[in-house]
Specification:
Elements lengths: L18 E8 L13 E4 L6 H12 L6 E7 L3 H14 L4 E17 L7 E15 L10 E2 L3 H23 L6 H25 L1
Parallel strand pairs: 2-3
Antiparallel strand pairs: 1-4, 3-5, 4-5, 4-6
Length: 204
């Protein structure tokens, strides 16, 4: 199955070399928030191409009857789903957002290589994400809520904070122009002047 990391399966008392990996199924998840009947659901996998995803979603979100869109992904595809949602928000600055993190159940079936052995079923829970974008107002009290345009102001605020922090550190870090550097240069000059005076005394 696409979208999650392969890991070595170890079961107590079971020699996995006697089995080969077979069918892998994703268990359907319940939608974590109420959705409009006109919603468009976007499922993202590792093999999904951003150009195709965004081309379709941008066209659909412009349709007047479409009020909501969800981006769903699990495992390694989570980052791609987040990128798609953020690009959409930058191009459609009126969209409200709610993000939910959860686990998706995956069922792995292992087929026996030897007669007399039973088929094995292994349940795994992998990280998953569901992002809701809406033209209409959403629940602002939800912990995962982001208001329209909040991403831009967040980045601006973070950049300003980083700049202020760097400026503050520069005053105390010994960098050129900082107060510490000036004190260091002053002390060095005083030491050099003292050495020069001592040299003149020796010559006398």
């Amino acid at each position: 199955m696409d979208g999650y990391d392969e890991i070595e399966v170890k079961l107590p008392g079971v020699r996995m070399e006697n089995y080969t990996k077979g069918e892998v199924l994703e268990v359907s998840m319940d939608v974590p928030f109420p959705l409009d009947s006109s919603r468009v659901e976007m499922k993202v996998t590792v093999g999904s191409k951003l150009r195709n995803l965004l081309g379709y979603s941008m066209k659909k979100i412009k349709e007047p009857e479409v009020k909501q869109m969800t981006w769903n992904a699990s495992g390694q595809a989570i980052g791609k789903a987040i990128s798609c949602a953020e690009i959409m928000k930058r191009k459609n600055k009126s969209l409200h957002q709610i993000t939910k993190l959860m686990n998706r159940r995956v069922e792995e079936y292992w087929e026996p290589k030897l007669e007399g052995l039973d088929r094995l079923k292994v349940n795994r829970d992998i990280p998953a994400i569901c992002i809701l974008l809406s033209k209409d107002q959403l629940d602002t009290t939800d912990p995962g809520y982001q208001a329209p345009g909040s991403l831009g102001s967040l980045w601006t605020s973070s950049s300003q904070q980083d700049s202020a922090t760097s400026h503050k550190h520069g005053r105390d870090s010994g960098q050129p122009g900082s107060a510490t550097a000036k004190r260091q240069r002053k002390g060095k000059n005083q030491k050099d002047n003292k050495n020069k005076t001592g040299d003149r005394g020796d010559k006398t």
